[in-house]
Amino acid sequence: MEKQVTLATEVTYSGIGLHSGKDVTMTLQPGKPGTGIVFVRTDLPGQPEIHARAELVTSTLKATTLSENGAQVFTVEHLLGALFAMGVDNCRIRMDAPEPPVTDGSGLVFAQLVQKAGRKEQEAEKKIYVVDKSFSVYDGDKFLIMLPYDGTRVSFTSVNVHPLLGTQYYDVLLDEETFLKEIAPARTIGFMHEVEQMRKMGLGLGGNLENALVYDDTKCLSVPRFPDELVRHKILDVLGDMSLIGPWKGHIIAVKSGHSYNSQLAKQIIAYREGK
Ligand SMILES: [Zn+2]
């Protein structure tokens, strides 16, 4: 029997949010067995809790937003992806703003915070959903499929019109080592031609050339960590968004998909499990 895992101690990190640009101090704390991942908005009256669950996703525009008890948290997918890949089941995330720190734009700092805090097994069984049928979301030539598989695997094909990006493919059989080496360091992507429009919408205010992989029309203005950093980051996003169904074993095949597809697939799986 695999047991549930929480942090051994708490760990704090401060920074600014990717989209809001707001200062935030975040403390990851151990959580009780069976409680899952819970955000706590310490800046709001009554310190409302927001559970990291697929049914609470209310927006997927550029990032994943969760809403509960009249409060929101957004751009949670990189932090959630890191907690999922590092096997953390129960964690309280206290934040004094709606958005976790962007850190270096990837999942690496969050994974390192888990390592710094240490992990502890708990006296409760880890409830892993072993995918037992196929699920899919199709939209023209874009799709996202979950299949039964003995392991946690993601195969992603990303297609971008930018001449330096084009078609990228990456396949990962997830464990802690592959996550830390191949997926966690991959950062968010940004395009100069989108920056002005995004800022008008109040998005990307905390982004810069270090915490995002930024391209103009012909070149990359940042220093890439991988030649295929975009598709690796997309896998991080998938892991974060799909962690909202709890721990799972299965194979995700994604073609040109993004946050809204992840959310639709997660909700489909939740509905199926509830109907069983
Ligand atoms: Zn992302």
From TrEMBL:
It comes from the Bacteria. The active site is at H259. SUPFAM superfamilies: Ribosomal protein S5 domain 2-like. NCBIfam families: lpxC. Belongs to the LpxC family. PANTHER family: UDP-3-O-ACYL-N-ACETYLGLUCOSAMINE DEACETYLASE 1, MITOCHONDRIAL-RELATED. This is UDP-3-O-acyl-N-acetylglucosamine deacetylase. The lineage of its organism: Bacteria, Bacillati, Bacillota, Negativicutes, Acidaminococcales. The gene is lpxC.
